[in-house]
Amino acid sequence: MAVAELDDRGLIVACANCGQKNRLAFERLSDSVRCGQCHENLSAPSSPLEMGSTPDFDRLVAHATMPIVVDYWAPWCGPCRMVAPELEKVAARQAGRVLVVKVNTDVLNDLGARHGIRSIPTLAIFAGGREIARTTGARPAQDIEVFIAQATDAARP
Ligand SMILES: [Zn+2]
Q: Does the annotation mark 15 as catalytic?
């Protein structure tokens, strides 16, 4: 899976129409944004984003204006492979409402250690810069969506 491209201020995405790379600012992830070159609407990320570094993850979680669903996984983990297509469905159906990101705990093992991840897959939801819910084990997309809805409803002021 390709690693998501981020910089200090946002997520870098290619325009589906012209290929131009655009930055989606962390603070404006839920806004509709147009391509800087061809002015087509840029669609919100609709597939899981693999995190390439711990600073990327930290910046995204700290500044993102939409809930982030984090899948802690590793390539050797069978249940992680079962949940991967379910997360693809969630990312597609919830595009523009939540962002699904993947953390390979073999590569970003400092993140797994910092968040006390003891078993994988673990799904965690971050909102407003902090973790608001966590669950472990593989489950179907519908169950993941219920988990997201319950966590984000409970966190709403
Ligand atoms: Zn474009």
A: no
Is the backbone of residue 133 left (phi > 0), alpha (psi -120 to 50) or beta? beta
Is 77 labeled as catalytic in the residue annotation? yes
Residue 109 Cα to ligand 1 middle (Å): 36
Cα distance between residue 132 and residue 150, in whole Å: 10
Q: From the CA of 11, how far away is ligand 1's center (Å)?
A: 16
Q: What are the tens digits of pLDDT across the range 28-59?
A: 888 889 999 999 999 889 999 999 999 999 99
**Using one digit for the tens of pLDDT, what is the confidence trace for 119-136?**
999 999 999 999 999 999
Residues near ion ligand 1 (CB < 5 Å) are 15, 17-18, 20, 35, 37-38
Distance (Å, whole) CA 4 – CA 40: 21
